[in-house]
Backbone:
């Protein structure tokens, strides 16, 4: 997998991968996949699609992808407001059970580019509830301990643990603890790509218990082992 762009601030991540084969996983991002050649199959809990060349998968939808002699480009977008869904509607794209599938359409590359440009020009991470927005910033920018993380957040936004947990999942679609792991994973990948350090050092600096903990989080959220990810700076053990 080649990392073409990894922008934590914007919440946009772009990759290119040959022979994409992922385990069942889900992530707090909208994923757009286009086959540059070949095709892929896509499986969720209630459907399986074969010979797919373009797909949009909503955030937090568990899915598996199997490549069929395919090189694909992936765009992942953190979308915490309604701007992206409204834009997709303008393009005539409706997600059914969290998916939009195309098997053969010459306009797919144009759709991909339009979505990419839209994500680059808008703040799709901004959340209407400022208390949850504050929590997101804290999780992404402060070094919190896992055991005391929620208590730290509740003291800063003046909400009970149960109320904060409810509002957070309502806004983001996943629990605070899972988003906490996602934030650490983004930090670790960013460190490897931009600081030239290995995964062992990145694991420690981003707050994982050890390298195995980071590897498990990587596979659970992105569906593949971190050793498959590379660009001119290689992610490997």
Residues:
């Amino acid at each position: 997998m080649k990392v073409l762009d990894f922008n934590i601030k914007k919440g946009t991540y772009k990759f290119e991968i040959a022979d994409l084969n992922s385990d069942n996983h889900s992530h707090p991002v909208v994923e757009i996949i286009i086959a540059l050649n070949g095709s892929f199959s896509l499986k969720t809990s209630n459907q399986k699609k074969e010979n797919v060349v373009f797909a949009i998968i909503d955030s937090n939808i568990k899915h598996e992808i199997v490549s069929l002699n395919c090189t694909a480009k992936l765009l992942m977008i953190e979308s915490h407001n309604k701007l992206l869904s409204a834009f997709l509607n303008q393009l005539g794209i409706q997600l059914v059970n969290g998916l939009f599938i195309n098997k053969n359409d010459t306009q797919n590359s144009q759709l991909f580019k339009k979505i990419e440009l839209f994500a680059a020009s808008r703040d799709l991470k901004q959340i209407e509830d400022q208390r949850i927005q504050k929590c997101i910033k804290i999780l992404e920018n402060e070094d919190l301990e896992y055991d005391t993380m929620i208590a730290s957040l509740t003291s800063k936004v003046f909400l009970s643990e149960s109320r904060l947990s409810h509002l957070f999942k309502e806004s983001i679609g996943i629990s605070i603890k899972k988003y906490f792991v996602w934030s650490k994973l983004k930090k670790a990948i960013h460190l490897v790509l931009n600081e030239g350090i290995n995964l062992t050092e990145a694991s420690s600096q981003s707050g994982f218990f050890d390298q195995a903990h980071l590897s498990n989080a990587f596979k659970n959220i992105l569906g593949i082992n971190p050793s498959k990810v590379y660009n001119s700076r290689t992610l490997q053990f």
